[in-house]
TrEMBL record:
This is ABC transporter substrate-binding protein. Keywords: Signal, Transport. Belongs to the bacterial solute-binding protein 5 family. It holds the Pfam family SBP_bac_5. One of its GO terms (molecular function) is peptide transmembrane transporter activity. Residues 83-475 form the Solute-binding protein family domain. GO terms for biological process: peptide transport. Residues 1-23 form the signal peptide. GO terms for cellular component: ATP-binding cassette (ABC) transporter complex; periplasmic space.
Length: 553
């Protein structure tokens, strides 16, 4: 499966793509097209990115692409979950953990030729902190809200005082990031691709902050996130035609070791089985989220099958924006109705197991509190009767156009859960939406009473699971539980690891009692590649894979 024959065809379309993507906007730093002689990797993604401005995305397919274009101050160590140098070659943390001082690498430039300076880094933090209007919605600036909590002028009562306390640049290579209170988790959080550093010049020129529509359905009317994403990474943006392909080309002015590939083409292919067929037919080189049912066929055909360690969790979420979901007996009934063992046993592959917490069991601070919600139809019916809700009806949302390690086949999971709920006396009204756009926006806005989602860890800290979900009010879950909020606040601030671990165990117990949703699966994921692909080491932290070291032999 050499796929060499695809290079000339793809390279021939590069200029057309770039023209289609860029329109009439000026394009400082526009990359040159790859030639037919340079290696081209074709990667089958499960969906198009939602947006290429890292500040405005929260989905894996967007992050997979933006991680090649933008870089963060610190990164997740390759193959692990620790923190390693990124744009910052070193850092220091103050004794009270409220000031982080970073020393930037010398000689780094953005794709538009502008130098990376401490002032440019601070301009990015100030941009995020000063978002207004729709940009403050957690359906738009999701990770800023979950990590830094609030803005310079909060426009919603659901937002809290910001953790961000300011950014100073004493010289061109020194960044002082100040917090309003201590945080033991913020350094790991800064590995998130959403904190990728963008060219301040490009942000302004391409109107990055223009957001229209509604919080439920935002529209990015500037062109930075669709036509001109400009960072410092090993690849530059070349063009994008939604539903067809997105192209990146090597950044030959990169500050570090140059990428081995001349170009990457991302092709959206919704179904895992279709991605496998494309690989076997020789039309793509690699893909993620392989269906476990396809693994043996891929191996027999000579493809590489790569296992990505389990660092994820799939859950059935409840939005308490809807009255029926504010009834704890109903939530408990749903938890007992779902046969989690059957779902994992029939819909997941080797190494999968039932999730017993809103974090994987490989994460410190894990506990087994949800084990008490075994499959028990009689108990579910009893709880429904006690709830006072006659003929309970649930609107159940599930996505199309996506597969994930925690949810390889969303429709298959939905059908099994629907049957379980109906057996317990619920009426289920299905509602399916395309993953992007539509589903994520609806779920994040709390407009799906019952929904399927999950989490691939972004960084190696329990705060990335429990803090992201439950440390404060979010529209997605739409509940207020001050006891849970307070324990998670303490856990983030606490500098002692042993004390933090106890606090996260306590939070897990409180969550099992409150039942904001039902964790049901954790699973390793499987990637596949043609035999001539080298240098791809899937990370347990998704999606932090760098393609800079990937090559075709």
């Amino acid at each position: 499966m050499p796929l060499r024959r695809t290079a000339a065809v793809i390279a021939g379309s590069a200029l057309v793509l770039a023209a289609a993507a860029c329109g009439d906007d000026p394009a400082p730093g526009t990359p040159r097209a790859a030639t037919a002689e340079e290696p081209v990797l074709v990667f089958a993604s499960s969906a198009d990115p939602a947006i290429l401005d890292p500040a405005f995305h929260s989905d894996g397919e967007s992050s997979r692409v933006t991680s090649q274009i933008f870089e963060t101050l610190v990164i997740t160590e390759p193959g692990g979950t620790g923190v390693a140098p990124g744009l910052a070659e070193s850092w220091k943390v103050s004794e009270d953990a409220d000031t982080y001082t970073f020393t930037l690498r010398p000689g780094v430039r953005f794709h538009d030729g502008e130098p990376l300076t401490a002032a440019a880094v601070c301009a990015n933090f100030e941009r995020w902190y000063n978002f207004t209007g729709l940009a403050q919605s957690d359906s738009v600036s999701y990770y800023w809200v979950t990590v830094f909590r609030g803005f310079a002028k909060n426009e919603s009562g659901t937002l809290r005082k910001s953790l961000y306390g300011g950014c100073a640049a004493p010289d061109d290579r020194t960044v002082e990031l100040r917090l309003t209170e201590p945080s033991a988790a913020v350094l790991s959080a800064l590995t998130l691709s959403s904190f990728g550093i963008a060219s301040p010049r490009a942000l302004k020129a391409y109107r990055a902050d223009e957001v229209a529509g509604t919080a439920d359905s935002p529209r990015f009317t500037g062109t930075f996130g669709t036509r001109h994403p400009i960072g410092t990474g090993p690849f530059r943006f070349a063009g994008w035609i939604r539903g067809d392909r997105l192209e990146l080309v090597r950044n030959d002015d990169y500050w570090g070791e140059k990428a081995k590939l001349g170009k990457i083409v991302f092709r959206p292919i919704e179904k895992a089985a279709d991605r496998a067929r494309a690989l076997l037919a020789g039309s793509v080189h690699a893909f993620d989220y392989a269906d476990p049912a396809d693994l043996e066929a891929l191996k027999r055909a000579g493809a590489q099958v790569l296992e990505r360690a389990s660092f994820n969790m799939g859950y059935l979420g409840f939005s308490q924006k809807t009255e029926i979901m504010r009834n704890r007996r109903i939530r408990q009934a749903i938890a007992h109705a779902i046969d989690r063992d059957r779902i994992v046993g029939t819909r997941y592959g080797p190494g999968a197991k039932v999730a017993q917490a809103f974090m994987p069991d490989s994460m410190w601070g894990h506990s087994e509190d949800f084990a008490g919600y075994g499959h028990d139809v009689a108990e579910a019916r009893r709880l429904v009767a006690e709830s006072g809700v006659s003929e309970p009806t649930l609107e159940f949302c599930y996505p199309s156009g996506v597969s994930r390690a925690y949810m390889v086949d969303p429709e298959g999971n939905f059908r099994l859960m629907k049957a379980d709920l109906e057996a317990a006396g619920f009426t289920v009204r299905p509602r399916t939406l395309p993953w992007s756009p539509g589903y994520l926006d609806a779920a994040r806005a709390g407009d799906c009473p019952l929904y399927l989602l999950g989490w691939n860890s972004d960084f190696g800290d329990p705060d990335n699971f429990l803090g992201t979900f439950f440390q404060s009010f979010s529209n997605q879950w739409s509940f207020r539980n001050e006891k849970i909020f307070e324990v998670l606040d303490r856990a983030e601030k606490e500098p002692e690891q042993a004390v933090r671990e106890k606090l996260y165990r306590r939070a897990n117990a409180l969550l099992a009692d409150f039942v904001p949703g039902v964790p049901y699966a954790q699973s390793p994921s499987f990637s596949a590649a043609a035999r001539n692909v080298t240098g791809w080491t899937p990370s347990p932290v998704l999606p932090s894979d760098s393609f800079a070291r990937v090559a075709l032999r």
